[in-house]
Amino acid sequence: MKYILIVLFVLSVFSCTSVKKYNEQRLSMIPPEKLREDIDFTYRKLQEMHPNLNWYISKKDLDSKFDSLKTTINKSLTPTQFYFKLQPVITKIREGHLSLRIPSKRFSRKEIKALKNKKGLFGRFEYYVEGDHLYFIENKDSIQNIQPGTELLSINGVPVSGYLKKYRELITSDGYNSTFFPHYLKDVFFNFFVAEKGIMDSAKIETLYKDKRQTLTLKRETKDKKDLEKDKAEKKRSPEKKLKDYVASTSSYNRNFKFLDKDSTIAYMKIKSFSRTFSNKFYKQSFAKIKDAESSYLIIDIRENYGGSLYEINQLYSYLAPEPFVLIKPAQLASTSTPLKTNYFRTASPLEFILKTAGYPGYFIYQTLNIRKGKDGIAYYTMKENKLTKPKLNAFRGKVYVLINGGSFSASSIISSKLKFDRRVTLVGEETGGANDGTVAGFYSYQKLPNSKIDLPIGLLLVQPNITFENTQKGVVPDVEIKESMQDIIDKKDTQLDWVKSDIQKLKDSKIWD
Questions:
Q1: Is the pLDDT of residue 81 over 70?
Q2: Helix or strand or coil: residue 330?
Q3: 118-219 has which fold?
Q4: Domain 236-330+383-513 carries which CATH code?
Q5: 10, pLDDT greater than 60
Q6: Domain ranges within the chain, ordered by starting residue
Q7: Closest by Cα among 176, 187, 195 to 128
Q8: Are 371 and 268 within 8 A, CB to CB?
Q9: Which residue in 88, 112, 110 sits closest to 98, CA to CA?
Q10: Helices and strands in the chain, H and E counts
């Protein structure tokens, strides 16, 4: 016990020192020549490791973007200031997964504990972005009586439109679609804001609702006993929470299943994230219920689903496929060596370093066995998802609809693209935020810029659905396009789901007359 306590004490001191050192470095001024070195380092690593760097931009144009950036760096900057210079250039590559990590302040355990006992300032609302406008669309706690549909005009006297334009330059979809930005920006707006401005205890805001302007003050409130008890209860993982993958921070489930009618002919599955957690059990139980109910129609809702596990979408597809299938093409690599450059020890504490050292031989052998050089001279990484998969015994044979929108990204786009190509479903909604022809992600090489110390995760796998490519450089286009307005969301009117229900009713009616 004495030795365990000594180890814990050493780790605690190490953690505190690490946080302090990081925060000091984050505020330091870095000379321009050192920043230019970081720009060269970034571009060199991208060229070395990214498997399809010039998919959406030519090498000549990308060379020019990086060279132009270097000419603008003529004074010392903090890492955060430098981030706002370099990240917009990286977005020109048009790969949604490729992004610098903004150097936000790190907190000590004491600071984290204090924050856990307080409510959010801006995080207690739901938002909607349209152009250069940011709106409140949900206010569950009735804070300051802000009504859904109210526009947030300014924060502490600074126009929100300026922040939106600035932050819009920090994100990109895959390719040239534009549907991704409003969906993603509403979710990450305050991540950027807090990283830039810091965590505030209060903020003066100006709002506009029905032509009436108001100046209000938001305050970070301390949680009462009831709030703390609720937090504690939400952390408990019941069997239902595990199965549906409960997310305590949003008080919602990543997966839900239900029937939409009394006779159970219409099954509905909402998947907010392909997290993989307990996914096997969820799909097994859900499709067993569908089979027992002899349902004729299935609606799969992957709107606002930013993606996740290839394993999970392969599992889901196996319950929809009429015959054996291959979900994705062999994943391409920049070279046979890049899978071994994933920075295996990057976040290891002293104790974790010891454990990882012991496990490294197994990791090395596993990675090496999955790398191969094709006859075309291209390096490939073998995964289960690019091998033949048999349909499940409970595979659904009825009519399938899939709801998509600009928030359907990454794995959501891959499964949508595959399902559409195989003509297995009717896609309804809005063009996906992820590309029709694949993306670069998989696992990452975590690079750290040598002077600014900004993290740069680089996806190492070119992951593409097993389809004939359209080369549109856009997202998956729905079979039936239906756009959703802000007022629809406020009124809780689901026009896309309503269209599907109406179409199903027409099919039912036609069968009666047949």
A1: yes
A2: coil
A3: Pdz3 Domain (2.30.42)
A4: 3.90.226.10
A5: no
A6: 26-110, 118-219, 236-330+383-513, 338-345+354-381
A7: 187
A8: no
A9: 88
A10: 15, 19
Do 438 and 409 form a contact (C-beta atoms < 8 A)? no
3-state SS of 262-279 is CCCCEEEEEECCECCCCH
Q: Nearest-CA neighbor of 383 among 475, 278, 307, 313?
A: 313
pLDDT digits (tens, 9 = 90+) for 97-144: 999 999 988 888 888 888 888 999 999 999 999 999 999 999 999 999
Tokens of 333: 């690599």
Structure-token match 């606002």, residue found: 304
Q: At 354, is the pLDDT very low, low, confident or very high (cuts 50, 70, 90)?
A: confident
Taking the model in full, what pTM does it have? 0.92
The first and second tokens of residue 309, run together, are 């596990």
Query: Residues for the chain: how many in total?
Result: 514
Task: Round to whole Å and give the CA distance between 438 and 97.
Answer: 12
Query: Average pLDDT over the chain, rounded to whole?
Result: 92
Whole-angstrom distance, CA of residue 88 vs CA of residue 69? 10
Q: Where are the beta strands (DSSP E) in 192-305?
A: 202-209, 212-219, 246-247, 252-253, 255-259, 266-271, 297-301
CA 414/CA 316 separation, integer angstroms: 12
